[in-house]
Design brief:
The protein is built from nine helices and three strands. By secondary structure, it is mainly α. The protein has a single domain, classed as Rhodopsin 7-helix transmembrane proteins (Rhopdopsin 7-helix transmembrane proteins, Up-down Bundle). The termini are far apart.
Length: 261
């Protein structure tokens, strides 16, 4: 207690005040999405094109999920993973596209700080989930082709649920981590984002504080996720190709490759 100087409390209070001021500035900040604004004459054609693509995506993915759910013949690990891949793709499209369509028909392209961060957070979850869902599907095909007699035992329902749960859980952890370090940045007033979506690089570029740590975190996270999933996918399909090439039957070649396609 004797070592505490009167100026220490003032310094700590001043630091806390500055931090609160930065938080208040960030919370009140707004973003303007500039994506496609440089083509004013093409706003309506862009709207029609992206709306069509979005509707096809929604109908295709939801239709895939519905068909897999109601058809007992499709209650297999391959279609179980495919239904989750469709779900993730539908969610990602629904996070990004509605705001894009809105910006193409209204002059006000602003999005709140909270809305921008939430869009990035959710998009990050679904992007990472899709990446590892593809890796899980590659592993499933590897087991189906390389160990067909043990397939039903190896790819048990318990393991399938576990693999999907791990994919979702890891994507949430990654998104929370990246978003947390993104929230440590300061944003002041109105910020312009040269994109149609709140993605990390564009948000960081609009920050008025040092983004070094946040950039390193996203670099490490993206590199690990991409390399690890790519290694799983390439290893699985390389093993499948080697296994199929050892089989002399042309019919089995066709069946093996078609089931992977």
């Amino acid at each position: 207690m004797d070592n505490i100087r009167p100026g220490d409390n003032f310094t700590n209070n001043q630091s806390s005040t500055c931090e609160r001021k930065q938080e208040n500035q960030s919370a009140g900040a707004t973003f303007i999405l500039l994506g496609f604004s440089e083509y004013p004459d093409l706003q309506v054609p862009f709207f029609i094109v992206f709306l069509t693509i979005y509707m096809v995506t929604v109908v295709g993915n939801l239709g895939m999920i519905l068909i897999i759910r109601i058809n007992p013949k499709l209650h297999t690990p391959m279609y179980f993973f495919l239904s989750h891949l469709s779900f993730v793709d539908f969610c990602y499209s629904s996070v990004v596209t509605p705001k894009l369509l809105e910006n193409l028909v209204v002059e006000d392209r602003t999005i709140s700080f909270t809305g921008c961060i939430m869009q990035f957070f959710l998009a990050c979850i679904f992007v990472v989930s899709e990446t590892f869902m593809l890796a899980v599907m590659a592993y499933d095909r590897f087991v189906a082709v390389c160990n067909p007699l043990l397939y039903t035992v190896a790819m048990s329902p318990k393991l399938c649920y576990f693999l999907v749960a791990v994919s979702y859980s890891w994507s949430i952890v990654c998104s929370l981590t990246v978003t947390y370090f993104l929230l440590t940045l300061s944003f002041c007033g109105t910020n312009f984002i040269n994109n149609f979506v709140c993605e990390h690089a564009a948000i960081v570029a609009a920050s008025c504080s040092d983004p070094c740590i946040s950039q390193k975190i996203i670099l490490v996270s993206a590199t690990f996720n991409e390399i690890s999933s790519l290694v799983i996918i390439l290893t699985s399909y390389a093993s499948i190709v080697l296994t199929v090439m050892k089989v002399s039957s042309t019919g089995r070649h066709h069946k093996a490759f078609s089931t992977c396609a």
